[in-house]
Amino acid sequence: MKALYLVDGYSLIYRSYFAFIRNPLFNKKGQNTSAVFGFFKSLYNLLQQYKPELLAVVMDSIGPTFRHLRYPEYKANREKTPEDLHAQIPVIEKILAAFGIAFVRLSGFEADDIIATLASRCGAENRPCRIISGDKDLLQLVEGPVKVLQSEKGGSFAELGRDEVYSSWGVYPEQIVDYLS
């Protein structure tokens, strides 16, 4: 059965942007392109290392999520997204579309919600699923055929299954929620 690879789009975009925060990359127009460059460099490395046949980049809802509607202060203490990072998201989406790489967005839901739903379905089908994200919250999804791939220096990825989550964090995937609380 073919593995489903789910890229946490905003996680990878943010990591890419901030990886170049001290030495940002700019195009000829003076626009910051750090997130675009880092995102596609990581995606290229993923494609080279794993050669996924089933791949989707999962993005957050553009508008408020159901969490914002239930609790208006949800993420209220987070710093606002830098404008030059935000401006790169449509560029990334256009390039993904040009290459025919699926990206999934569902109004009212964060990427984490969509990833969790798809990973759960993969688990129920016993289909291998690889979640590409630096988000610690997603480690709670690791179970059976569902694993997380985290970027390492040099462009490769570390695969985290149940034992690797324990080795890294000292807790098992089902304990991540309590650990992060």
* Computed Rg: 16 Å
Q: Note poorly predicted spans.
A: none
What characteristic shape results from the CA principal axes? Answer: globular
* Main β-sheet description: 6 strands, mixed
| Average pLDDT | 92
Describe the protein's architecture and organization.
With 181 residues, the chain is of the alpha/beta class. Helices cover 41% and strands 15% of the residues. The protein has helices at residues 9-19, 34-50, 66-70, 83-86, 89-98, 111-125, 162-169, 176-180, and strands at residues 4-8, 54-58, 102-104, 129-132, 146-151, 157-160. Strands 3-2-1-4-5-6 form a six-stranded mixed beta sheet. β5 and β6 (157-160) form a beta hairpin. α1 (9-19) crosses α2 (34-50). The longest helix has 17 residues, at 34-50. The protein is globular, with a radius of gyration of 16 Å. It starts with a strand and ends with a helix.
Record keyword descriptors for this entry.
181 residues, alpha/beta, 6-stranded mixed beta sheet, 8 helices, 6 strands
Offer a quick outline of the entry.
With 181 residues, the chain is of the alpha/beta class. It has helices at 9-19, 34-50, 66-70, 83-86, 89-98, 111-125, 162-169, 176-180, and strands spanning 4-8, 54-58, 102-104, 129-132, 146-151, 157-160.
